[in-house]
Amino acid sequence: MWFFPLFFSFLLIPLGIWLGLPPTRPRPPPSNKTLEESYRKTRGKLSKEQLTGLCKQLDCNERKIQRWMRLRSAQSKPTILSKFTESAYVHYL
Predict the structure, then answer these.
(1) CA distance 31 to 11
(2) Total domain count, the chain
(3) Which domain does 9 fall in, by range?
(4) What DSSP character marks residue 27?
(5) Residue 4: is its pLDDT beyond 80?
């Protein structure tokens, strides 16, 4: 079991990059404390009333808030490269 970190570092990650899998996450949304709190409470699923309330509170349009939520949600997901290495690890065992 000691060789698994080496297996990931020297074989799977370079193989995934060579296959063209992006190793980075999408760019993070601009920091906004109010939207971050709302995201944590609702897990990114806002009702129409919550969306309207945030629009009034932050003085911006619905589209901007929806876009921020989508970008924040993308930050929470694992990268394609990490999914590749995890699946290769599971198949190897």
Answers:
(1) 36
(2) 1
(3) 4-21+30-92
(4) P
(5) no
